[in-house]
Description:
The protein is of the alpha/beta class. Strands 3-2-4-5-7-6 form a six-stranded parallel sheet, with helices on both faces. It is globular, with a radius of gyration of 25 Å.
Amino acid sequence: MPDTVQQAPAALLPPLRVRTTAQPATAVERVTGAQALIRSLEEVGADTVFGIPGGSILPAYDPMMDSTRLRHVLVRHEQGAGHAATGYAQATGRVGVCMATSGPGATNLVTPIADAHMDSVPLVAITGQVSSKAIGTDAFQEADIVGITMPITKHNFLVRNAEDIPRTIAEAFHIASTGRPGPVLVDIAKDALQARTTFSWPPVKELPGYRPVTRPHPGQLREAARLLSTSRRPVLYVGGGVLKARATAELRILAELTGAPVVTTLMALDAFPGSHPQHVGMPGMHGDVAAVAALQKADLIVALGTRFDDRVTGKLDSFAPYAKVVHADIDPAEIGKNRAVDVPIVGDAREVLAGLATAVRAEHKDGRYGAYTDWWRDLDRWRATYRRGYEPPADPGLLLPQQVIERVGQLAPEGTLFASGVGQHQMWAAQFLPHEEPGTWFNSGGAGTMGYAVPAAMGAKAGRPDRTVWAIDGDGCFQMTNQELTTCALNNIPIKVAIINNGALGMVRQWQNLFYGARFSNTVLHDGATNATTGSTLGVGSATNRGTRVPDFVQLSEAMGCVGLRCENPDELDAVIDKANSINDRPVVVDFIVHEDAMVWPMVAAGTSNDDIMAARGVRPDFGDSADD
């Protein structure tokens, strides 16, 4: 039997690694290629596969039925399988696995594969392919999925021979989970699954060109430590790579050792406790004013497992104009890609952070300490002046989306995992959920994939059934993948979904409001005519105008085997959330009817400088220096 993943304390995720067998190689057996595939998945430690059978992959589904070590979750759409595998990987730290047939089955995986690629998620997607002799003939349900996914995978394979299956699966899991994690596609011809072959384990991996560098250069670490001890306005700029490396404990040690402020990107919000006094917030387009200002005014940025994304930098040539840059990443291609770097460090984030701490201690031993008193005075002033918050509604009976998300987070059981869709609700979830424990926040960052939340929450719950899992979704996102609630109901995966229902494609509507003269072209998701509760006609400008609710999310959820709830009044908010938290034998969906014109603030408009951040509409922060005059 394979070794089990080491059990970590409740506050930490298990290390990212592939389980391997401790036994010597088994005796050679005669099996089909399909049987070799299932046996190989068992031996690399996979325990859950999300997928849908079809003609070309069907041979693999027969031996899967006999497996006692693999659980298959039959999803309703292949996109759901891919996002569920991503959510599983994010929640467990292990490789997520999804499976689909050839042609449209495989192409439906393209979006979640691209999503996993952008966010560096370890994923193995297994697809059936038409028989070898039919490849290239435009056979029924043929698609060149290897060619299609080549730009969005870390690596991919086309397997034509049954004997290559065990080695390919071993290599795929190794590539997906080591170095910078990412998706790997294994496309297997149907005749390879049907052919007879021999099986023995472990196979010999053949990856001569794959040698990720994990150990950083000590000289670069010493130079980074020297800059930290001599700078006056440093910032630790932390990205999702720190979470992927399971390096949050090392991050906290370094932060407290140096006393430097910490900003965490959207993908790294739970890498450093949000309540920690050194946490300045999230940078970026909808980041905290203090975090954006910290990067703009810094004289040193120590970037850890992050890639200087455009949503963080704003207009690149005006980003952090006074700062030297130390950039540490396990992927050398990221270093210097967007921002010139003074000290490049290639290595695993855990080793980098541990090495930096050692080098900083050496600086301290020699009497060199960073002097950040004035810097913290500025940071604290900005934090106090431009706090996260939201204006109370003019109508006290109106439910605000920020209020809903904040209370969901406050009333959720300890250790709850949160998956978010994409849009306004994603930004409010980033701002108002409690981000304290590593590995409890999942969202689609790089790709910005609407429809991510429900299947990702499903995968997270399948991987960590002991945890409560809330999906924070918008009514637009929810309508893209809500069919997976049926999957949840039938497979005993009791997730909870908060629909932030503003009757619109909220973030697009916000941009239309700000930049297109409030011309709301094709962003309204209701008919704009009647109040669904009373049936009365509403004025176009009414704050409570939701039109006829189509679909009715409560009825839709109940039809899919879930508990459906609705909340429209702030007085009912806590009671409804408490009721949702108390139901654990079925999925629960809560339709929160919220103000359609609420906006996400702060905001840096796309393509503009971070210096132009607006704390609210018409409110530009004053940072108290000549640059703001």
